[in-house]
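Morning run. Coffee first, then this:
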Amino acid sequence: DDDDDDDDGREESPSSKNGRHHHNSARRWLTAVDAAIDSRKLEAWIVASAHDKHKLFEIARSLGPRRCPLDRLQIIPKDLSRPRYQIRDLRATYPGRVTETVASALRVDNAAAFNALVDLEKIDAVALYETRQDAERGCLVETTTTTTGASSAGADDPHYALLKGVTKAFLIDGAETGARNGRPYF
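And here it is:
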């Protein structure tokens, strides 16, 4: 069996292999991505003009507050002049320490939707890890601070922080991890 052939004997193109890999990767990280992104942002509407925005509100009002509460309606104006963001890839910045991010796990073809997720949820700065140990080795950096209390005068206490550029980290099961007040949490 040759891995380059699909079921009908035809050779698979590199782009379709990459697409299949991307799809499987995104499915694998679904729980973590879901935890990292505020679901209300995924319910947002992208509008191209003031007229479209007005029409959307009109439709929402006609549906009524139970079916479409106006206070939960999120509208993102589509700026047609803004191209898709060229984001920094944390995987390239920290090879071996960051192996997946929300931005790399998701495939977002629409530039306005991608830009909105970067602006609103910072998907380019959210690292994903399979295990707690991977997260500890990957996104947490240890620094030391000298404490000046009577019982610990001169002692160095470990102090942890996220890697520069990482705003959040999630485990594959959706648990958030990071450092708060210098202490790791999981």
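The two ends are 43 Å apart (CA to CA). Good start to the day.
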